[in-house]
Amino acid sequence: MNILIVDDDIVDRESIIRTLNKSTCEWDFVETESVDEGLAAFAKQKFDVILLDYRMPKRDGIELLLELRNASLEKSIAIIMLSNSEETELALECIKNGAQDFLLKSEVTSSRLQRAILQSKARFELEEKLQSSYQQAKKLAELDSLTGLANRYSFEEALQSSVTKKPRDDSKLALTLFDLDNFKFINDTHGHDIGDQILIQVTQRICNCLRGNEVFARLGGDEFAIILSNLHTIDNVTRVTQRILHCLDEPFNISGIVIKMSASIGIAIYPDNTNTANELLKYADIAMYRAKKLGKNQICYFEDKMQEQFLQRYQVEANLIGAVERNEFILHYQPVFETTTSKVIGFEALIRWNFQNKMHFPDSFIPIAECSRAIIDIGRWVITQAIYQISLWNLRNSKLLSISINLSSIQLADKTLVLFIKSMLEKYHVPAVLVEFELTETALLENSSQAITAIESLSDLGCRIALDDFGSGFSSVSHLQNFPIDTVKIDKSLMLASDQPKTRALVQGLSAMLHSIGLDIVAEGIEDEQSFLLCQALNIQRTQGYFFAKPLDAIDIERQFIV
Length: 563
Ligand code: C2E
Ligand code: CA
Ligand code: CA
Prior knowledge:
Blueprint: E1 2-6, H1 10-21, E2 28-32, H2 35-44, E3 49-53, H3 61-70, E4 78-83, H4 88-96, E5 101-104, H5 110-142, H6 152-165, E6 172-180, H7 183-190, H8 192-209, E7 215-220, E8 223-231, H9 235-247, E9 252-254, E10 257-259, E11 263-270, H10 277-293, E12 299-301, H11 304-320, E13 329-338, E14 343-355, E15 358-360, H12 366-372, H13 375-396, E16 402-406, H14 409-412, H15 417-427, E17 435-439, H16 441-445, H17 449-461, E18 464-470, H18 477-482, E19 487-490, H19 492-496, H20 501-516, E20 520-524, H21 529-537, E21 542-544, H22 554-561
Parallel strand pairs: 1-2, 1-3, 3-4, 4-5, 11-12, 14-16, 16-17, 17-18, 18-19, 19-20, 20-21
Antiparallel strand pairs: 6-8, 6-11, 7-8, 9-10, 13-14, 13-21, 14-15
Helix pairs in contact: 1-5, 2-3, 7-8, 13-15, 15-17
Bound molecules: ligand C2E and calcium ion (CA) (2 copies).
Ligand C2E binds near residues 350, 406, 526 and 545.
């Protein structure tokens, strides 16, 4: 047996070794003089038992006991405390803190110590078994046995602790409660076994909509809860809960029985709605009740303002479907000027949406179109329209004009995008070099092989590639080297602040760097003469902004700029 002796007194150590060597067992000893040395030896080697002196100069034996007992179970070991003190209190304290036995040094004999060691080891092994079955029982008590999800008890604990912890960074937490619509009816008509199978399958489908770091619980019956944390906007909650509703769309097939299932979802937000767990639960419940009352299979926020925001988003999303076919989009064109001559050399196509008798700007619908993939159809419409328009203008204009088209990263994932663009260029006889595609850094950051292939194919086709909004995000120079980029557009936020010395210096530095690697530069957001003069001084080739012209519809462009 391997024995670790931790005792500062050499005479006591020798006496222990001598005593044990008189007994019938085989012993291997490692001697250490202090708690720290003992811990170091323990970390290095496996022992069967520790013989631990209570009284030592720097740290006493109980400290070592505590350190080992607080470490993980598998790092634990049987410990026998040895002391010269006869205090019963001390003996009890040692046992309470996890020692298996307590012996007085004066009473140690070889047979007694051997017995103590063997018994302590056995006792320790029993304790270990007890501990692991306790853990197992705890797990069973915290999990729902049908679905394996957290149960109500552990859900309430988790909710309480997330609310008490208070997120570090102003982030929000959403409590999402939902229950299945008409579940009772299904249980009654098809029986509980089928009902159970539905609950299991619902759980599986919903798990696929989650990232895995959420608390997902079954509160009982057909009622579930999800805690979504680290949120910065409620849009994320909308997205996840919509995904949950959609994942239930497809009917369930249980042993040949086809069953339609939907859910009603109620959401309350911490700390916006309240900062106590109980109220959060109550509010989410009220919201869920409202979702049921409004006709089921839907999402309700507890707070009216959030509900409005959600409905607005929902309405935009729903109305984007088919908007292309209904001809609701139009393109505006913002002229781009050659800096040295102040002459128009091309345009940037910027989309507008005519919806509910109001002109909507892209920031209010493009991000939503990107989530629902409606962006693919919208993007194709923009490409077609912009290429067609520039072909018309180039028939009439004395000099060839170029067109810049914004592409979203989602469009790059479309495998037929490049073929589509090629066919449009051919259809309208537009030379590829006149078409520049603007991409933001986020599109490049995704770094998917499909996106890279698309960008390279566009470049091979002869189109130009521009990196949009440079200087507003990460602005990594490596992107400029790793992708076939021709042009960089300096972000308008920099140009708008270029009267400030620091920003001015930044623009100067950026343009020197971009020139040095041979890239074309466009400055956008030129609103005054001063910014324009700065562009001239820095040899920035192209400029764009309200100083020259706002984005205009095709008729106004023709009137003012096509000659
Ligand atoms: P962007 O590509 O950075 O487009 C420039 C935006 O700045 C446009 O806003 C334009 O109207 C505005 N702008 C132009 N000159 C000035 C100026 O001097 N001062 C100021 N303050 N702003 C100026 P808009 O049209 O609202 O477009 C916003 C964003 O929507 C665009 O930013 C672009 O990222 C996106 N977008 C526009 N059209 C499309 C499209 O067809 N497809 C895609 N995927 N995104 C588009
Ligand atoms: Ca752009
Ligand atoms: Ca831009």
